Amino acid sequence: MVFDSFSFLLFFAVVVAGYQLPLPWTWRKTLLLLFSYGFYAAWNPPFVALIWISTGIDWFATRRIARSTTVASRRAYLLLSLVTNLGLLGFFKYGGFLLESFVVLVQSMGGDFRPAAPDIILPVGISFYTFQTLSYTIDVYRGEKPWPSFLDFALYVTFFPQLVAGPIVRAGEFLPQCRESRRSTAEDLGWGLSLMVVGLFFKTVLADAMLAPLADAVFAGAQKAGFVAAWSGVFAFSGQIYFDFAGYSTIAIGAAHCLGFTLPMNFRSPYASLGFSDFWRRWHISLSSWLRDYLYIPLGGNRRQPIRVSMNLLITMLLGGLWHGASWLFVLWGALHGLYLMAERKVREHFPHWIEPGGLFGRLFVMVGTYLLVSFAWVFFRASDLSSAMSLTHAMWTGAAGELAVDRAQLELALAATFLMLVGNHFMRERTFVGTAHLLPWWGRSVVLAALMIAIALTPGNDRAFLYFQF
Predict the structure, then answer these.
(1) Do the domain assignments include residue 319?
(2) How far is the C-alpha of 398 from the C-alpha of 392, rounded, in Å?
(3) Band of residue 100 on the pLDDT scale cut at 50, 70, 90
(4) Each residue's pLDDT tens digit, 338-363
(5) What are the C-alpha distances in Å from 389 to residues 132, 209, 221, 276, 393?
(6) Taking residues 110-128, what's their average pLDDT?
């Protein structure tokens, strides 16, 4: 069940109607939890058991951690949570990858090892809810009090708007909202539905209709792509993945708002970033902040010698890349961003005032440079194999001619969407959705939403799943 489907619209209407029934708060939370399990079970019912395992283990471990009087005991229960959650994630997401890598290693050493291909199905959203439950356990280990209600905790783990593709919500952001009865007001529904319309427009019109066709064509014909085709395809994918994932996050935040809950923002105009550290404060914020708080800072963060800080950055980004998928291409993508951050840190050490608040030319130069290098890194994220990635990068940096003919209509649509994205990111860099919407009168907002809904309705459906469902 995907957000841009009629089945979800029907499901969501039933959820909102059921949630508004005059029932006690505990019953309504229970109803919401059951709806969330049903939402996840629509993909593959048996995998709901994995969520139950993570929920039960972390609930048990955190209560034991809070009651333990020795460091050894606290560490043992933390280890129970880490082994269970990361073990499940490792088996389902990385089992085949590790086996394949081991086979390549053995064969490179002259061995002949040919195991049966593993038949492992990747549970949807396992990376997201695993990191979410782990953050709760680690927070309790660090001194936070465990939450008293198992129902609230189970709802936190399984809340359907963000269950399968984020944002990765912290317990401190969600659980306090479960204390008192929450009902969506007319204003909540209005803003929530508006966010959902904007998110659907991002996904169906901009990502799927305007950008995906060109990106798919170029990456499918990577071996024949020339300079123009390569860069246009990469720019198209830069926009596609932004509008696809930001669209999902916006719909999730809007759906939660319709139920009276608040989820954190996951994107803040990332393609208007002034450098790579700024980019990671704006792109997939819930993941980048998770990696910062639970990996980078525990490794030592910025408090070590320069060489150690560089290694901390590289390790964090390597694991951030691997989080996205079981492929060496994701590792290379993470490594590139690690190198970007290391290089930026060196530049800042020698030129601490390299971006002056009033220096428009300098800011524009850094902004464009950041966008170009981030787009270049997306090659390794999107390419089907290393050979295709190298063909594209060769064409991009050498200006090589190619045989791949880019469809003019697809190119024009992609350029229009890319221009809209860059201008929109620049305009929204220091603004919020609500604040910007209030710049218009009520009738102006109504006209814009009507236009977006008409565009969504007129866009041909091609049944594309959200890109981050695979992670």
Answers:
(1) yes
(2) 10
(3) low
(4) 999 999 988 888 777 666 555 677 78
(5) 32, 24, 11, 22, 6
(6) 70
What's residue 438's pLDDT?
83
DSSP secondary structure, 165-193, as one string: T-----HHHHGGGGSS-----HHHHHHHH
DSSP for 81-109, written as a single string: HHHHHHHHHHHHHHHHHHHHHHHHHHHHT
Q: Distance of CA 435 to CAs 191, 267, 279, 439, Å?
A: 12, 16, 22, 7
178 and 266, same domain (yes or no): no
Burial class (CB in 10 A: 0-12, 13-18, 19+), 313: buried
- Give the DSSP letter string of 339-401: HHHHHHHHHHHH-TTSS-TT-HHHHHHHHHHHHHHHHHHHHHHH-SSHHHHHHHHHHHHH---
Number of domain units in the chain:
2
> Is 350 an annotated catalytic residue?
no
Out of 284, 324, 337, 353, which one is annotated catalytic?
324
Q: How far is CA 368 from the centre of its chain?
A: 23
Query: The domain containing residue 25 runs over which residues?
Result: 21-182
- What mean pLDDT is predicted for residues 33-49? 91
Question: Which domain-ending residue is among 152, 182, 212?
Answer: 182
- Residue pair 196/254 in contact (Cβ under 8 Å)? The answer is yes
Same domain, 234 and 161: no
pLDDT of residue 336: 95
Last residue of a domain, one of 182, 204, 238: 182
Q: Is residue 34 part of a domain?
A: yes
The pair of three-digit structure tokens given for residue 181, joined into one six-digit string: 């009865």
User: Are 123 and 99 contacting, i.e. CB atoms less than 8 angstroms apart?
Assistant: no
Using CA atoms, how far apart are residues 294 and 313, in angstroms rounded to an integer?
13
Helical ranges in 207-327 per DSSP H: 212-220, 227-258, 276-280, 285-291, 306-324
- Tell whether 109 is covered by a domain: yes
Nearest to 425 by CA among 270, 294, 304, 284: 270
Q: What amino acid occupies position 290? A: W
Q: Are residues 163 and 276 in the same domain?
A: no
User: What's at 96, amino acid-wise?
Assistant: G
Q: Helix or strand or coil: residue 409?
A: helix
The encoded tokens of residue 141 equal 């280990």
Query: Do 195 and 172 belong together in one domain?
Result: no
Give pLDDT, residue 303. 81
Q: Which DSSP helix (H) or strand (E) runs through 64?
A: helix 48-67
Question: Residues 6 or more apart from 152 whose CB is under 8 A from it?
Answer: 29, 175, 178
